[in-house]
Design goal:
Strand 11 and strand 12 form a beta hairpin. The radius of gyration is 18 Å and the shape is elongated. 42% of the residues lie in helices and 22% in strands. The protein has eight helices and twelve strands. By secondary structure, the protein is of the alpha/beta class. The N and C termini lie far apart (46 Å). Strands 2-1-3-4-5 form a five-stranded parallel β-sheet, sandwiched between helices. Strands 6-7-8-9 form a four-stranded antiparallel β-sheet, with helices on one face. It has a three-stranded antiparallel β-sheet with strand order 10-12-11.
Length: 233
């Protein structure tokens, strides 16, 4: 049975989620503040986390930020319509999806299934693909999710790693920001192309020796990004 952690301080929402998730054969655990939720998420392996943005002690953005330093657990954020800036920030630091309050249970269940399906598909691909990608000073072990630059291990967020693997596996291919949103985030997030830009900038900061003159992840003006085919041995 899939287990979902609900980090939410509204008891009515918690009750509603627990009833409907159990009806769909999900077991649930609950935390009513961000600090407790983060501790539970770090200590246990949940299949998915439903994370409210506005929480006591520690807000949802900080919970997600700290979680992503250690875990790849899928996260769906619950936001209010007025929380646009925080929602964007949540996506940029690694949330997999968001849903705006008030929401329908049918829509939330569809989002849960979609996120889990994408996560399972990626896990199967990673398990079957034990290949490595090696370039001039860059080494990527896809199965172990390990990246080395000049033999130094580089810590990437899940989305940064997925962007790097996608482009490095297809050197020379141009990807628009919209394409990258669809492929990496799994659905069309129209209007959030700057999220891709933020991830690319952080990725470059970690793997490039000079961000102003990158060797690996290149900007294709008027299109998007590509991995430099000249780096292929």
């Amino acid at each position: 049975m899939k287990q979902i952690l609900i980090i939410e301080d509204d008891q009515e929402i918690i009750k509603l989620l627990e009833i409907h998730l159990k009806d769909h054969i999900y077991s649930t655990a609950v935390a009513m503040d961000g600090e407790t939720g983060l501790r539970m998420a770090m200590e246990h392996d949940y299949d998915l986390i439903i994370l409210d943005l506005t929480l006591p002690i520690m807000d949802g953005v900080e919970v997600c930020r700290q979680l992503r330093t250690k875990k790849n657990t899928p996260v769906i954020m619950l936001t209010a319509k007025s929380e646009e800036i925080d929602r964007v920030l949540g996506l940029e630091i690694g949330a997999d999806d968001y849903i705006t309050k008030p929401f329908s249970i049918r829509e939330l269940l569809a989002r849960i299934k979609a996120v889990m399906r994408r996560t399972n598909a990626k896990a199967i691909v990673a398990e079957e693909d034990s290949s490595t990608l090696s370039f001039e000073n860059l080494f990527i072990d896809i199965n172990k999710r390990k990246v080395l630059v000049n033999n130094d291990k580089i810590e990437l967020s899940p989305k940064e790693f997925e962007l790097l693997v996608l482009m490095a596996s297809n050197p020379g291919r141009n990807y628009s920001r919209t394409e990258l949103l669809n492929i990496i985030w799994g659905y069309n997030f129209e209007g959030y192309e700057h999220t891709v830009n933020s991830h690319i900038n952080r990725l470059r900061a970690k793997i490039e020796s000079d961000m102003a003159n990158p060797n690996y992840v290149l900007t294709t003006w008027g299109v998007g990004y590509k991995f430099n085919e000249d780096m292929v041995a």
